[in-house]
Structures are given as C-alpha cells and as structure tokens.
Design a protein that fits this description.
This protein is mainly alpha-helical. It folds into two domains: about 45 residues, no CATH class; about 80 residues, no CATH class. Helix content is about 30%, strand content about 5%. It contains three helices and two strands; from the N terminus they run αββαα. The radius of gyration is 22 Å and the shape is elongated.
Length: about 150
C-alpha cells in the first residue's frame, strides 16, 4: 500500500498570504471566555457578551479579560476557508460532487448521511480527486481486513 498525499488547493498569492496571516493571528488571539466562567460551575466557558450595568469587562478595564471585537477578525480573503485553504461544500449525495471544483473546493459530508451513502460519496470523490474533509477512510479499512484474512489463512 503506497501513501497518497492529501490534495492541496490551488490558491493565488493573495489568498495564500491571507491564510498565513490568519494562522499567525489565531495563535495570538486570546481565548474569549464568558464573564465569571471560573466562579460558577453552572456557567460554561462559551462566549457571552457582558451586558451588566456595572460590568468592568463590558467597560474594557485593563485588569479584566479581553472582549470580542472587530480588531481580532481575520483577513477578508481567508474568511470562510478551511485551514487547508479549500472552500467547504456540504454534500448529501454522490451526484453533488460533480458540481465541485477539486482545485478550490473540498467536500464535507453532512451529518445525516448514513454509512452506505457516505462510502459511495468517498469512493466517487476519490475518482474525481476531490478532498473529503471528514473522511472515515473506508478504502483503508477494506485493505486492512484483506491483509488480516490472508494472515489467518497462512
């Protein structure tokens, strides 16, 4: 079995720079957490805008955690792109892959798709050389099972 590298998108220079810039900004971006998330167990850490009249976080005091604002946003050219650089397209049926451009778009199989259809979508994507972002790798499973069967026979 030979290793086949994952498909890479054909990006222009501007988009490639924007992706690199977004990745660098993401490393610096703070983890925005809800006000008082550490104080009460019933509060999750998911971001909620502080709305209290006396909230120090809302007034952006220096000694309080950072608040979400537009300045933390990524470059416009990189918005909506998967970290790999592909534009994600949600797919429900193998026929939907025909409309995709394998050089710029990658498929994400919908959560409601069953195993049989998922396998068909992944097989068709392999033929069309379209990357599947949430692949389960059925082709590898069948090869491993064949190898295991051969070892048992010996």
């Amino acid at each position: 079995m030979t290793h086949k590298p994952k498909a890479k998108p054909k990006l222009d220079g501007e988009a490639r720079k924007a992706l690199a810039k977004r990745n660098a900004a993401s490393r610096k971006r703070p983890a925005f957490r809800r006000q008082n998330w550490f104080r009460y167990k019933r509060l999750g850490i998911a971001w909620r805008k502080p709305r209290g009249m006396h909230s120090k976080m809302r007034t952006r005091r220096k000694y309080r955690p950072p608040v979400v604002s537009a300045g933390y946003r990524g470059p416009a050219a990189a918005r909506g792109l998967h970290p790999s650089g592909f534009v994600e397209v949600l797919v429900h049926r193998p026929e939907e892959l025909e409309a995709l451009d394998g050089k710029l778009e990658a498929a994400r199989i919908a959560a409601t798709v069953g195993d049989r259809k998922r396998e068909a979508i992944e097989a068709r994507a392999g033929e069309l050389e379209i990357r599947v972002l949430n692949s389960r790798g059925y082709e590898n499973d069948s090869e491993e099972e064949d190898d295991a069967d051969e070892e048992e026979e010996e």
